[in-house]
Amino acid sequence: MDFLYIKALHIIFVVCWFAALFYMVRLFIYTTEAQQKEEPAKKILTEQLLIMQKKLWFIIGWPSLIGTFVFGWWMYFLNFSFYMTQPWMFLKLIFVGFLFVYHLGCHMIYKNQKAGMFKQSSFRLRLFNELGTVFLVAIVFLVVVKSTGSLVWGMLGLFVFAGLLMIFVRVYKNMREKDSKKDSIEP
Prior knowledge:
With about 190 residues, this protein is an all-alpha fold. It has helices at about 5-35, 40-80, 80-85, 85-115, 120-145, 150-185. The protein has one domain. The chain is built from six helices and no strands.
């Protein structure tokens, strides 16, 4: 198979994998927030959201991860001598390793919620969701720019970006709390 077809398939699976990760964590948030509802809404929402989690995770999430790894390693081994000399590739693989650990963390949350255990707050899950964004930004910049020469500045920018995301999540939480207080006060 031509290298460009393998690369295209790798990119398609990466996009699907990130879509699954981002939406899965949103489903975790919604399922956690459903636990605050009154019955029968709590039961109905939880059951439906758990079905959505299962389908997303096993029809899109895991297959996309596997496709990403198969086509990614295929590309790597087709151009092994080139990639072995590229410092940015090693850093990219480290971030992909962190992303895989993130995926496993999502799987643990999935298993806990399926078992009726909701250990993380919706706020904590929102912060966890932004971690996926940080990995996405780091990996895309490394692949596109292909440079570790300005790694210090790049990492600094990544941390600033992550910090801004955390601030926006906090502001959003405060706005939601104000809206819910206002809604509970109005007759």
